[in-house]
Design brief:
homodimer, 357 residues, alpha/beta, binds 3-isopropylmalic acid
Chain lengths: 357, 357
Amino acid sequence: MSNKNILILPGDYIGTEIMAEAVKVLEVLKAEGEAIEWSFGHLGGAAYDAEGHPYPPSTQQAARAADAILMGAVGGPKYDSLPRAVRPEQGILGIRKDLGLFANLRPALAYEELAAASSFKPEVIAGLDILILRELTGDIYFGQPRGRRTNADGAEEGYDTMHYSVPEIERIGHVAFQAARKRGKRLCSVDKENVLETSRLWREVMIRVGQDYPDVALSHMYVDNAAMQLVKNPKQFDVIVTGNIFGDILSDEASMLAGSIGMLPSASLDVNNKGLYEPIHGSAPDIAGHNKANPLATILSVGMMFKYSFDRADIAERIDATVKKVLRAGHRTGDIAQPGEKVIGTKEMGDAFVAEF
Amino acid sequence: MSNKNILILPGDYIGTEIMAEAVKVLEVLKAEGEAIEWSFGHLGGAAYDAEGHPYPPSTQQAARAADAILMGAVGGPKYDSLPRAVRPEQGILGIRKDLGLFANLRPALAYEELAAASSFKPEVIAGLDILILRELTGDIYFGQPRGRRTNADGAEEGYDTMHYSVPEIERIGHVAFQAARKRGKRLCSVDKENVLETSRLWREVMIRVGQDYPDVALSHMYVDNAAMQLVKNPKQFDVIVTGNIFGDILSDEASMLAGSIGMLPSASLDVNNKGLYEPIHGSAPDIAGHNKANPLATILSVGMMFKYSFDRADIAERIDATVKKVLRAGHRTGDIAQPGEKVIGTKEMGDAFVAEF
Ligand SMILES: CC(C)[C@H](C(=O)O)[C@@H](O)C(=O)O
Ligand SMILES: CC(C)[C@H](C(=O)O)[C@@H](O)C(=O)O
């Protein structure tokens, strides 16, 4: 069997720092005999600097050839005034679309050890473990037509098209029901069916797909209510499935339940479970270069990669367990430290992880 | 001067119960000599039952003629299986559009007395006072074209159009800057400018409108980040302005900061400050008819009506102050009671309010 080939895209600002720690974990695994190898590429601002485009042909080629992709974070002030077509986020949108990474998995997990860092009362989040499944290649993100036009009153207007087709909804629906089946067997589909035509079709198709999964309890919730319920009583949820734009909003909201976005990994999968794995946090220009960033979300992303793309849930579990051990031992980067606690750096956190791994 | 003419639309389920308490407050004000009168009409399910349409011609006529409208809540299981065109929410969407109620004001206020009922730690919400301004007659809610079509791959798809024109953005922009000017002088405009054409225009126009308000500090935030920041550190905001769909989601999320949606009023204004006032909560079919609903949000909506449509901020302040007094005296309906606290009914809460008023 040939080695699994991982493309690493550190990206911008803290991206390179956190990725260096994730690589330490890959090195341990390789030394233990795991059949993996990796190479590096550019995405986002770094790619624009090096090759004039946020998702350049060299990265495209490497990404298509890879078995999985590990990404740091992209974007930052240096690139804010670039023309839109070459801004870093176009690199992310580009690679998602190019590789057909339609299923974005975002677990939101509350670490007991970090309850003090959360805005929420401990009892609201204790034991929280939900999975948000966001469709990632459709919806209003890529919908045509879009642009500027003159409306019926002769005024200039901006417009975009939200849309979902039956096969797109079926595809994410199956992923969602299968994920729910492996967890608490409850799936909540979030839409705005009382207002949107796209949502009406979404709900119809979800109900139809659900007939293949009689063991999973399907419910529906309007997106406004979901935004409220996530804050009111997040533990009512097991798996949530929703479209690209609603998922963008709700998954960021839900990330706060975990206390720090420095702790949350994500996976974006294609139809064959090839995936791009990344922490959900951004490139944090304010702390970049200072050995301050929390590398744990990136390391947890390595775990998701082993679980989903390499079918090695055992390694994912070992990584998850090690993160808990490291937290229990009191290791804290600045984002998860309470006043008075000792703060360690990015490298030291990576080393602490490896020492316990 | 002729009397101010208020149209009361109790709506469905608890709508009639909470409205009866708001009317007690109107009666006190009238007895004190305020030049107001009121009449009743149907909206939502009640209107469908009585006249076959959720926003029937009789209500339309009365609403157009009124100086202000006070609404309870509409919708509920009885009407869920009706054809979409006559479902209760079409009554709400219909009256908003018909009267041009483009500016939806939703204050989110944390009552010290209710901190125990909130999911948030007291220090996160103590003293919270933010205003969310949601554009209410544009965006993807009413955008054309919308419907079903066959896409390029021959698959069926549902689609909707998001759009905003320059005059629509300017109009809500001016309301937002003026509101910020009367408060903390900070306005945060929320969009998804890194992805949507509609948002690009939105941001351009907000910046342009801002030139008329050099005393107000304008900032911009992506909607996903705003959903996160509202939970992480809500007190960073003063006034938030956003479009219809993002506002729907964010304002419901923000309502949870207040502890109970039973405490939150809202106003929807036209260009002349004629408005529709309503609690933000729904019709609560589960507790309807049991004298359990909290009437305070509806009573606070009466306060907003006096402030915005009748230019009587003094009465609004008196109502706000009385609500605080009532809470301080320990009066609690079920939604805001803690375990062990004495719970009173809808009518008793209305009476307690009037007694302190
Ligand atoms: C950068 C941006 C285009 C992106 C998105 O909206 O998808 C980001 O918010 C995310 O969630 O990954
Ligand atoms: C009932 C529904 C159409 C409505 C909306 O989405 O505007 C409601 O959620 C609201 O916020 O008033």
